[in-house]
Write the structure tokens for this entry.
Amino acid sequence: QVQLVESGGGLVQTGGSLTLSCAASGRTFRAYGMGWFRQAPGKEREFVAAITWSGGNTYYADSVKGRFTISRDNAKNTVYLHMSSLKLEDTAVYYCAAASTVVPAFLLTANVYDYWGQGTQVTVSS
């Protein structure tokens, strides 16, 4: 069992930066691939970024590539999402998730994930 708690959301102006954290409970954190997803009002939940258990592979949605960076610290049971050059369309609730899949490419798909956090709101204003 893995419990995930996101933090770091808030209000930021366009062009600004924000770093989200996701703290995981459980000693098996290092066994899970981790992902960030987001859901804007009236829209479907969408993939943002993912990282394999070792941190050796990362994946990004085209909409955030070059602006967002996912990383993890297995010693701290934490995964991060550093967001820069934020745009109005980045406004959403951001969720972290953990997946036990051994196929890295599957990390782009929401239904692969076993555990989800409660989400943290990110609001980008002009």
The radius of gyration is 13 Å.
